[in-house]
């Protein structure tokens, strides 16, 4: 199969769309897709989406814009413009206003996490947690298709500051070499595997050649196994890619492939299975992650089936996230208490081998906060949490408590339990934010 993508301008040409969707449904896609990113491809349309189940099919909801993703007011505003035959520039201007109101830069991504080194800000680098440097290669900032829930959505509609990515492999090597606490470099995007193998190699090989003893793990975050498994099978540089993975292993480093799967349907096809086998053959290990998403995977059965399938194929379940507070969060998010109940029921259904999954986890300003669950302590209903990652490593692993709140969808909605006015990390976090504000931070969530 040759890669062919579709977007807002040509999706009506997809035969399945023409056949299965009403005019109203197509209009909904056009309206929402004018504000939030939309891109799908032939493989997703032909192999992943079950058109007999549309509009409820989870793979359809995962890549085609849904009406409920915009508030009724925003929807109506754009609808009127399109009905009135407004010019593209006018629609874009209104779309940009709506986008700006959807918290496009959550969790201090733009400022707090950008390292300052040798007197300059390293754009395209995020160094939030001590051991792991996140790197956004300049050529890897799109994806083979876009997920409707994506928290990186602003970069796909062109409003994110382009400085968020880097094309400087040498700076990457120098920064890692100079920071002995870094054991992991995580390549992310977008999807770094939209890059040609030789371009990815131009980032990875210098890291290997530099023989940095403290660098142990090279991670690649990618959705390509789901949206374009041909990347590992029939693309003309697929063997080159797999050989690059082998070279990482030969250099004595671990290649951690961080795969995004949201639903068991993504693991069923022959192509994805063959692609997983080929990656496993290189000595890389595939770990899997997903947010818990209303309308897509919010049932214990779907999650348990997904984790079992992953383990059967030789992958390691890693993180189950809470949907982030950006974009169409209200459409996809599941309240923390409900998320924990779903997680727990799924966790109970699988054997210990699948229980490498950690969740539900909020990736938020202070760190990665895991919801441990609801409990009753001396007659009071509370919720328990711990950080799996923290801006301050000393925060990691300490249990803490909030009042019970079954409508909370994010840590900012929570009130500390037992009459405390602040969570234990809050003062220190405020201090970090003030320090960052002094070096001209804005836009903190
Ligand atoms: C999740 C995340 C990491 C990696 O965390 P692990 O727990 O080691 O997988 C690194 N940096 C940022 C900014 C993250 O959000
Ligand atoms: S593959 Fe990842 S970065 Fe790309 S749209 Fe999906 S969630 Fe976002």
UniProtKB/TrEMBL annotation:
SUPFAM superfamilies tied to this protein: Radical SAM enzymes (SSF102114)
Cell wall biogenesis/degradation recorded as keyword: no
Source superkingdom: Bacteria
CDD domains associated with the record: Radical_SAM
Keywords in alphabetical order: 4Fe-4S, Iron, Iron-sulfur, Metal-binding, Pyridoxal phosphate, S-adenosyl-L-methionine
GO molecular function: 4 iron, 4 sulfur cluster binding; catalytic activity; metal ion binding
Name the record gives this protein: Lysine 2,3-aminomutase
This protein's record includes keyword Membrane: no
Cofactor: pyridoxal 5'-phosphate
